[in-house]
């Protein structure tokens, strides 16, 4: 089987030839750390925006090479080129959201342009642009149908809170529900239009990337999720399915209080299944493993940063024992491969998947 | 007692106007400001904190309750200051250097105020030096540090080391919290307290303030 067939089979809840392997997201440091085992000429670890063109090109090529060398079956791409640099620490996206860069992690939205209905009334949303799909185009050209192409699409909640501010958005759920609906509707229209481009570009799996929970609980109540978030994300699911794509729901945190709603929405996959948030693989498999494919759960908080390759090997073997039966499992870390993970442990995860994953 | 119960209930419903009106009415009726604070506002926030800790309510409910609490606090604070009434403690908090995530830290601020603490919020991306300066400049009982990213957690130990170097470590209690943290990490870096959620943090702070 090709990697693409392997992923799509698992997401159809059938057994592929072996358990697929997937990297949902990966930072520059682990790309460089893992990459040093398979190529030369990589820059010292630093953020992408600090690299010159040659270094950027090398980093992207190394990302592809990691997928090829370690037989990672799916490749994730995301929107690029939609941000402008404001100053040394701030960038602004084409919605007007300002992000603060940090050497410790992803940029965080700190400037919110649409805080109330009045501002929304006069706001003209941006249009998705084909050149923002560059990473997907590069992946498609490189992998030539061998790997499943994933696209990270922000969902209604994340896009809305970035525009309005998270606490403000939550207060508006009480004070001005119409505003919250209007925001969600506007960002979903944008995403649906972008989905047209992605379908045209040969996408295989849409990721609805919409973090909605912390380690303990969802950030909003199940009723608020059902009113303000899920109906909008469901439009993405329905459109993607109508065009033959698979759809994976990504959210950090403990999703148990809203898991039934997510399942009823019709997603094909669930990621990243954080063990620290009670999203224990066996427990989730027992609850809904016949309804949704599970992608994730190899612990990136403690194990991948601080464990040994032998411990990672054991964890992958156990994950396959716990959730591999009948298909519907894709090995992946319990969130992004972030700057703190040990590259040797990542490689151990890749190798153990091949070693134990054969059906 | 009824009006205090009414204040607590209005606060739980997030009814700003009712909390404001009832607080004024309680004062007009001769209630002591400290009693309105403890039996009305703090009592209401205690229930919110407990429900939040148990997973019965979610962050938006805490936000509207805290906002309602502030309408009462705004009336009571100047009067309490005149009477020389002291808060249960002074708590300074910030998200550590490199970390811009603040909703967890903000919830801790709200629930600390709901326990009667005076809170100094240093915001996000706070350097160890800024934490140290804040302890120097304010009469602080407890310092709280928050981190969402595992890559920024080490800043907590750096801050504790700098407090020790400045001779301030033993004058305060230190609490830490945030998504990737655990009790063992808190123990390892020499913090005095850890809590897995904002409501538990407020309870832990009360314990530490009493030590």
- Whole-Å distance between the termini of chain B? 30 Å
Which structural class do the helices and strands of chain B define?
alpha/beta
Number of strands of chain A: 11
Identify the biggest protein-protein contact and residues per side. A-B, 29 and 26 residues
Q: Which series of helices and strands of chain B comes N to C? A: HHHHEHEHEHEHEH
Q: Major sheet of chain B, described briefly?
A: 5 strands, parallel
Backbone shape of chain A: globular
Helix content of chain B: 55-70%
Question: How would you sum up this structure, described in words?
Answer:
Chain A is α/β, with parallel strands linked by helices. Chain A is built from 14 helices and eleven strands. In chain A, the strands form two sheets. Chain A has a seven-stranded parallel beta sheet. Chain A has a four-stranded antiparallel beta sheet with strand order 2-3-4-5, with no helix packed on it. Chain A is globular and about 60 Å long. The relative contact order of chain A is 0.15. The mean pLDDT of chain A is 96. Chain B has 211 residues and is α/β, with parallel strands linked by helices. Chain B is 58% helix and 11% strand. Chain B is built from nine helices and five strands; from the N terminus they run ααααβαβαβαβαβα. In chain B, helix 5 links the parallel strand 1 and strand 2. The radius of gyration of chain B is 17 Å and the shape is globular. Classes of the chains: A alpha/beta (359), B alpha/beta (211).
């Amino acid at each position: 089987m090709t990697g693409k067939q392997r992923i799509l089979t698992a997401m159809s809840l059938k057994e592929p030839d072996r358990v697929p392997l997937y990297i949902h997201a990966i930072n520059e440091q682990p790309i460089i750390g893992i990459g040093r085992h398979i190529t030369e000429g990589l820059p010292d670890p630093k953020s992408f925006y600090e690299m010159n063109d040659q270094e950027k090109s090398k980093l992207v090529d190394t990302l592809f090479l990691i997928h090829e060398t370690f037989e990672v079956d799916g490749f994730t791409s995301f929107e690029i080129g939609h941000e402008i640099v404001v100053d040394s620490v701030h960038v602004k996206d084409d919605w007007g959201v300002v992000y603060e860069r940090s050497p410790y992690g992803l940029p965080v939205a700190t400037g919110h342009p649409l805080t109330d209905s009045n501002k929304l009334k006069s706001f003209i949303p941006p249009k998705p642009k084909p050149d923002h799909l560059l990473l997907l185009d590069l992946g498609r050209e490189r992998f030539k149908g061998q790997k499943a192409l994933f696209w990270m699409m922000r969902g209604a909640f994340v896009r809305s809170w970035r525009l309005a501010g998270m606490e403000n958005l939550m207060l508006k759920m009480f004070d001005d529900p119409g505003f919250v609906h209007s925001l969600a509707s506007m960002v979903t229209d944008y995403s649906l239009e972008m989905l047209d481009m992605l379908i045209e570009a040969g996408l295989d799996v849409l990721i609805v990337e919409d973090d909605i929970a912390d380690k303990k609980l969802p950030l909003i109540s199940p009723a608020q999720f059902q009113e303000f978030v899920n109906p909008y994300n469901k439009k993405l699911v329905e459109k993607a399915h109508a065009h033959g794509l698979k759809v994976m729901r990504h959210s950090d945190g403990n999703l148990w209080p809203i898991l039934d709603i997510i399942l009823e929405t019709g997603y094909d996959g669930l990621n990243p299944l954080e063990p620290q948030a009670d999203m224990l693989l066996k427990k989730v498999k027992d609850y809904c493993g016949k309804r949704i494919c599970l992608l994730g759960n190899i612990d990136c908080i403690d194990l991948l940063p601080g464990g040994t390759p032998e411990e990672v090997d054991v964890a992958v073997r156990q994950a396959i024992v716990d959730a591999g039966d009948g298909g519907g499992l894709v090995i992946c870390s319990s969130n992004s491969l972030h700057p703190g993970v040990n590259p040797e442990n990542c490689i151990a995860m890749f190798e153990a998947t091949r070693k134990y994953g054969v059906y | 007692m009824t009006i205090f119960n009414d204040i607590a209930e209005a606060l739980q419903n997030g009814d700003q106007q009712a909390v404001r009106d009832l607080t004024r009415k309680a004062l007009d009726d001769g209630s002591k400001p400290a009693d309105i604070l403890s039996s009305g506002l703090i009592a209401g926030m205690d229930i919110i904190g407990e429900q939040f800790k148990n997973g019965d309510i979610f962050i938006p409910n805490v936000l509207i309750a805290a906002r309602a609490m502030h309408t009462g606090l705004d009336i009571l604070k100047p009067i309490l200051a005149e009477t020389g009434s002291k808060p249960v403690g002074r708590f300074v908090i910030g998200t550590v250097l490199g970390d811009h995530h603040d909703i967890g830290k903000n919830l801790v601020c709200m629930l600390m105020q709901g326990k009667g603490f005076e809170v100094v919020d240093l915001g996000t991306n706070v350097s160890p030096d800024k934490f140290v300066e804040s302890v120097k400049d304010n009469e602080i009982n407890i310092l709280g540090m928050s981190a969402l990213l595992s890559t920024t957690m080490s800043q907590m130990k750096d801050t504790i080391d700098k407090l020790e170097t400045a001779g301030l470590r033993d004058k305060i209690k230190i609490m830490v919290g945030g998504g990737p943290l655990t009790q063992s990490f808190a123990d390892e870096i020499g913090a005095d307290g850890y809590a897995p959620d904002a409501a538990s943090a407020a309870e832990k702070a009360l314990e530490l303030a009493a030590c």
